[in-house]
UniProtKB/TrEMBL annotation:
This is Phenylalanine--tRNA ligase alpha subunit. It catalyses: tRNA(Phe) + L-phenylalanine + ATP = L-phenylalanyl-tRNA(Phe) + AMP + diphosphate + H(+). InterPro entries: aa-tRNA-synth_II (IPR006195), aa-tRNA-synth_II/BPL/LPL (IPR045864), Phe-tRNA-synth_IIc_asu (IPR004529), Phe-tRNA_ligase_II_N (IPR004188), Phe_tRNA_ligase_alpha1_bac (IPR022911), Phenylalanyl-tRNA_Synthase (IPR002319), tRNA-bd_arm (IPR010978). It comes from Lentibacillus persicus. PROSITE patterns: AA_TRNA_LIGASE_II. Mg(2+) binds at E256. One of its GO terms (cellular component) is cytoplasm. Its EC number is 6.1.1.20. It comes from the Bacteria. Binds 2 magnesium ions per tetramer. NCBIfam families: pheS (TIGR00468). The lineage of its organism: Bacteria, Bacillati, Bacillota, Bacilli, Bacillales. The keyword Heme does not apply. It is found in: Cytoplasm.
């Protein structure tokens, strides 16, 4: 048995010396020191030895175990250090290399347009109001003079959640909510920017989700000429002082009379070209005098108060201002498109 133990020691130490990775070293440990290992198997035969031989063989077995364990621990340290050295060598960092530049982000083009429009109207005394995008049928339609069954509802193909809840089709509900909040007791001068939703097929000029800004001014003796002056200031501020506007009769259920506003084409200066379809004018927004029924439903006496309202699409305004030919560019997150406007925003005409 002594010879067996010595053979196990020599064999184990030789294999430990040859081991070149930690996995192989662990296999050697299990082979010789594990529950079913070579050393354990030899020790199980100690019961056949005499009482005098057992202590001697036991001492030799312990020395063999200690020698193998010590050598495995030593080789483990060497292999772990070698692995660490190799990893450090492969991951060497050259601190003399210049750092990678961090690209600075910027506001989205639509955000910049909306903020530019907000700044303009805040300067004219308007408040910025917000409202829920999930709206009730009452505020989205009925409070805007479109009762159930009204044909004008078909103009706005709606995402309904329930019979009474929907994704708002315009920001007009914010106007109705604000007027009701004021209770017909004081003037209203506000704009309401936000997202709106309609069941539309996405193409170069249409989207199922887009942005809108509506304005409302209600007070005593508000006239259509006040609306024209406001929109003229808006057009010149956003598109340039050389732009002219014109108002054409139109129809909206919440305004009477209603108008569409055109601006003169910047390409042909009103002479006519392919951009303006040879008319010299480009349609940009709608508005009109607030319908008496809308005022009355919000608690305002239509014999005392009058007002005007208008609605515009920042998407369309940005497209006209910067010559963008596809509304989908705003929503596809293409950096090549977005970075074009970091320096142009606020100044390009």
């Amino acid at each position: 048995m002594k010879d067996q133990l010595e053979m196990i020691r020599k064999e184990a130490l030789a294999k430990i010396e040859e081991a070149n990775d930690l996995k192989k070293l662990q296999e050697i440990k299990v082979t010789y020191l594990g529950k079913k290992g070579s050393l354990t198997s030899v020790l199980r035969g100690m019961g056949k030895l005499s009482e005098e031989e057992r202590p001697v063989v036991g001492e030799i077995a312990n020395k063999v175990r200690e020698a193998i364990t010590e050598e495995i621990n030593h080789k483990t340290e060497l292999l772990e250090q070698a692995e660490l050295d190799a990893k450090l060598e492969s991951e060497t960092l050259d601190v003399t290399l210049p750092g990678r530049p961090v690209e600075a982000g910027g506001p989205h083009l639509l955000t910049s347009i909306i903020e530019e429009i907000e700044d303009l109207f805040i300067g004219m005394g308007y408040e910025v109001k917000e409202g829920p995008e999930v709206e009730t049928d009452y505020f989205n339609f009925e409070a805007m003079n479109m009762p159930k069954g009204h044909p004008a509802r078909d103009m706005q193909d709606t995402f309904y959640i329930t019979n009474e809840l929907l994704l708002r089709t315009h920001t007009s509900p914010v106007q109705a909510r604000t007027m009701q909040q004021y209770g017909g007791a004081k003037p209203v001068k506000m704009i309401c920017p936000g997202k709106v939703y309609r069941r539309d097929t996405d193409d170069a000029t249409h989207s199922h989700q887009f942005t809108q800004i509506e304005g409302l001014y209600v007070d005593k003796n508000v006239r259509l000429s006040d609306l024209k002056g406001t929109l003229d200031k808006f057009a010149k501020s956003i598109f340039g002082n050389d732009r002219e506007i014109r108002l054409r009769p139109s129809f909206f259920p919440f305004t009477e009379p209603s108008v569409e506003m055109d601006i003169s084409c910047k390409v042909c200066k009103g002479a006519g070209c392919s951009v303006c379809k040879h008319s010299g004018w480009i349609e940009i927004l709608g508005g009109g005098m607030v319908h008496p029924d809308v005022l009355e439903m919000a608690g305002y006496d239509s014999k005392v108060y009058t007002g005007f309202a208008f609605g515009m699409g920042p998407d369309r305004i940005a497209m006209l201002k910067y010559g963008i030919d596809d509304i989908r560019h705003f929503y596809t997150n293409d950096k090549r498109f977005l970075t074009q406007f970091h320096h142009a925003q606020g100044g390009a005409q």
